[in-house]
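Observation: inputs received (chain + iron/sulfur cluster).
Thought: call the complex predictor directly.
Action: predict_structure
Action Input:
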Amino acid sequence: MNTYVYTLYGNIYINLTNYCSNACEFCVRNHGSTMDGREFGSHKGEGDCDLWLDREPSYKDVTDILDKMDFSRYKEMVFCGYGEPSARFDLVEMLCAYAHDRGIKTRINTNGQGSAILGVDIAPRMSRCMDTINVSLNATDADSYDKLCHSVFGKKAFDIMLDFAKECLRCGGNVVLSIVDCVPPEQLQKAAEIAREIGAKLRVRKMI
Ligand code: SF4
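Observation:
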């Protein structure tokens, strides 16, 4: 049974793909297939269900579920799940329009590599359709990011991620960089500097 939509913390979570351009050391994907509500050291890890998909959903697959929900009970539609949601950006954008029509805000938890994955700059559209763009910083330089995240883009991945965040900011997006609190204090300080330099907010999350 595929879980395309689930609810948690008063939000609606949307799970669209297994694909991810990273293979992070800490990813929940490496530690079994069931999320149990813990906050992982990634941009994923919110839920209480098996999020591995046998088949990626269509717009209709998702909206058939959403159509039956009472949106007055929820604050945000969050694009999250096991894979990188921006890999299916066309569908994400359509679902954002659906969420706004139903009166709730939108957020994406992304590794920031969507433009590189799709080969087209999605930052302007992302900034228009998302109320919050949460980009996982994970590390504070290209080498440590590569060692931790093993992106298909290799050592370019850190700059790809940060350039995406900057471009979203330039386009007026509300960008939050996130990092987990288990990194050394000097890295937390560096993360705060990076966020300040580019004009993003910083969210330090608990690693469990
Ligand atoms: S970017 Fe997120 S989904 Fe992809 S491997 Fe890293 S933690 Fe997992």
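Thought: report the result.
Final Answer: Residues 20, 22-24, 27, 29, 42-44, 84, 111, 149 surround iron/sulfur cluster (CB under 6 Å). Residues 5-205 form a domain with the TIM Barrel fold (CATH 3.20.20.70).
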